[in-house]
Amino acid sequence: IYAILESKTSMDTDHTKLRTAFRLSRAANKNLFIFEFIGDFRFTLHYGQVLFLLRAIYRPHNVYCLSVDTKSSVEFLDAVRSVSKCLPNVFVASKLESIVYAGFSRLMADINCMEDLLQHPIKWKYVVNLPGQQFPLRSNLELVKIFQVYNGANDVEGITGKRMMAMRFMWRHDYVTNNVTGDVRLVSSGIKNRPPPHGINIVKGSAYGTFSRDFIDFVINHQIAKDFLEWCKTVLSPDEYFWATLHHSKVVNVPGGYTGVPDTKPWLSTYASWGGGGDPCATIRIRSVCIFSPEDLPLLINRKEMFANKFYITHHPAVLHCLDQLLYNVTFSGSTRDLKQYQDLPFALKTSLKL
């Protein structure tokens, strides 16, 4: 079961081998929720890491949407598409984006997958939005139990005050192309942005979170969400404002939303060790985020978040293998760890949800 993901570094598209690698996942609890697996794979992600993550979260009753930067190599894109040929519940988004760092295309990669997922015949309950550099800290059964506690509530980070980086949305940002390299980046135009539509108050948060089906339906179809998405086109890193703002909005009754103080609410979708935040990091940081190594394992295995970010399979891959083995052991023991701590979360809805 580990052969392809541990020993193969080439883009092996043999469908028989891929099916064998994912066979272990069929022993899981058959409760429906969705992992939406998206990210910019062109620069930082090895194909082996794509498979390593997908195999860790894969269950035949869930649905998985993969989004790849159109600037990726043809070889890489073909390799990712081969997974969908092997596994019927894995698909590549019907519309792919040419990703610009901190640009609107990054947000649209998420939106495109979510539009496809709403049309999928499986009536899923939750979307988990993941970049390719994350890895689960909880087993599939544990995640299902956590979502039962959430009961339709979303789990979205919320930041207000000085940490909002207000200059990103107060000023219009334009795309500028380097005439020599062809690279595209966003720069401030020096022109003030118009206020957000409908009197929405901006909240910052991570692009990655856990979203209920009703929330995704709201994001895709409600006019307020559509108007806010249009406004986000001139924002720097709009994916760090779009989800958090809608989730915490008091302007409209958002499904699974939270109207309390964003900064005091726990956020358990993802753990990351940021420089300056006081969290330890055993080896290196990239853009202030720790790239985990085996020395970080004592910290990781005691976290209560569902996923951790970031891992590079080319940087101390043993940490991924150790976490993978831990999840394997937890899965086949049928155990669940420390679920009581989720029951008193302020954003969890208080009636029983059947998944």
TrEMBL record:
Molecular-function GO terms, alphabetical: acetylglucosaminyltransferase activity
UniProt pathway annotation: Protein modification; protein glycosylation
Xref: InterPro entries: Glyco_trans_14
Cellular component aspect of the GO annotation: membrane
Membrane topology: Single-pass type II membrane protein
Annotated compartments: Membrane
Keyword field: Glycoprotein, Glycosyltransferase, Membrane, Signal-anchor, Transferase, Transmembrane, Transmembrane helix
Protein name stated in the entry: Uncharacterized protein
Provenance organism: Biomphalaria glabrata (Bloodfluke planorb)
Gene (UniProt): 106079332
